[in-house]
C-alpha cells in the first residue's frame, strides 16, 4: 500500500480515560499526573481488558499461553466486517452461515452495540452464542472481533464463546467501536501493548481501506 492517507485509516479503538466504562468487576481506569521537576508523566492504572483489547488463552485457562506467545502476523492482515446490526439478542449460527466464512479469515461483527455507543454500560449488549462460537472454531478462523466489552452473555454459565475460540488459538478482540465502519473488506491492524501478561492486553486497532 503506497501513500496512505488519513481517510484510508479508520480508528476502531475506544479512547481510554478515567471514568470510562469497564466491564463489571474490572478495575476502574485512573490517571495520576506526576512531575520529575523538569517534565511531566502519568501513573496509569487499568485492567488488561480495558476498552479495545484482546483475549488470549490464559484469560480462561490457568497456565495457558499468554501475550508473549501471540504472533503478530495474526494481528495484521485482511479482514471482513460483517453486518450484524439486525441481530436482536445474540449472534447465532444462522446469522453467520450466509457469510461463507472461510479458513483463516479475520472476522469482525458490527452489531447495534456500536450504534448505542460506549459511554454507558448496557447489560443487554449483543454477544456471541455458544453454538456460533463452535461454528467459528470449526471454520478455523484466525481472529474474531466484536463491538462489545465481552464476547459472551453477561453472567452466563456457557463459557464456550471464550473457551472454544481460545482453545483453538483464535484471537478474540473485544471493545471495538465499529460505528463508522461499513460492512466489507479491509486490512486489520491490531497492535496490543507488549505487556507480558497471561490473559490479554489493551490494543490499538485500526482498519485500512484496501490491501497492504
Ligand atoms: Zn476480554
TrEMBL record:
EC no.?
3.5.1.9
Q: What's any GO biological process attached to this entry?
A: L-tryptophan catabolic process to kynurenine
- Cite the entry's keywords alphabetically: Hydrolase, Metal-binding, Tryptophan catabolism, Zinc
Q: Which SUPFAM superfamilies does this entry report, sorted A to Z?
A: Putative cyclase
GO MF annotation list: arylformamidase activity; metal ion binding
Tell me if Hydrolase is a UniProt keyword of this record: yes
**A Pfam family hit:** Cyclase
What pathway does the UniProt record associate with this protein?
Amino-acid degradation; L-tryptophan degradation via kynurenine pathway; L-kynurenine from L-tryptophan: step 2/2
Cofactor(s) for this UniProt protein? Zn(2+)
Catalytic reactions on record:
N-formyl-L-kynurenine + H2O = L-kynurenine + formate + H(+)
InterPro entries linked:
KFase/CYL, KFase_sf
> How the protein assembles, per its UniProt entry?
Homodimer.
Q: What does this protein do?
A: Catalyzes the hydrolysis of N-formyl-L-kynurenine to L-kynurenine, the second step in the kynurenine pathway of tryptophan degradation.
* Protein name listed in UniProt: Kynurenine formamidase
Q: Which organism is it from?
A: Candidatus Ryanbacteria bacterium RIFCSPHIGHO2_01_FULL_48_27
| Taxonomic lineage | Bacteria, Candidatus Ryaniibacteriota
Amino acid at each position: 500500500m503506497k501513500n496512505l492517507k488519513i481517510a484510508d485509516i479508520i480508528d476502531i479503538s475506544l479512547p481510554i480515560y478515567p471514568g470510562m466504562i469497564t466491564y463489571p468487576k474490572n478495575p476502574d481506569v485512573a490517571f495520576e499526573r506526576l512531575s520529575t521537576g523538569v517534565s511531566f508523566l502519568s501513573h496509569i492504572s487499568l485492567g488488561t481488558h480495558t476498552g479495545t483489547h484482546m483475549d488470549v488463552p490464559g484469560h480462561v485457562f490457568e497456565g495457558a499461553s499468554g501475550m508473549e506467545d501471540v504472533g503478530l502476523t495474526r494481528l495484521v492482515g485482511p479482514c471482513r466486517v460483517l453486518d450484524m446490526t439486525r441481530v436482536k439478542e445474540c449472534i447465532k449460527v444462522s446469522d453467520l452461515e450466509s457469510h461463507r466464512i472461510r479458513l483463516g479469515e479475520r472476522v469482525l461483527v458490527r452489531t447495534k452495540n456500536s450504534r448505542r455507543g460506549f459511554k454507558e454500560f448496557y447489560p443487554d449488549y449483543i454477544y456471541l452464542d455458544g453454538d456460533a462460537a463452535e461454528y467459528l472454531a470449526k471454520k478455523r478462523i484466525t481472529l474474531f472481533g466484536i463491538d462489545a466489552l465481552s464476547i459472551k452473555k453477561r453472567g452466563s454459565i456457557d463459557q464456550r464463546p471464550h473457551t472454544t475460540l481460545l482453545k483453538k488459538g483464535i484471537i478474540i478482540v473485544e471493545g471495538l467501536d465499529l460505528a463508522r465502519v461499513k460492512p466489507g473488506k479491509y486490512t486489520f491492524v491490531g497492535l496490543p501493548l507488549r505487556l507480558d501478561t497471561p490473559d490479554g492486553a489493551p490494543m490499538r486497532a485500526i482498519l485500512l481501506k484496501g490491501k497492504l
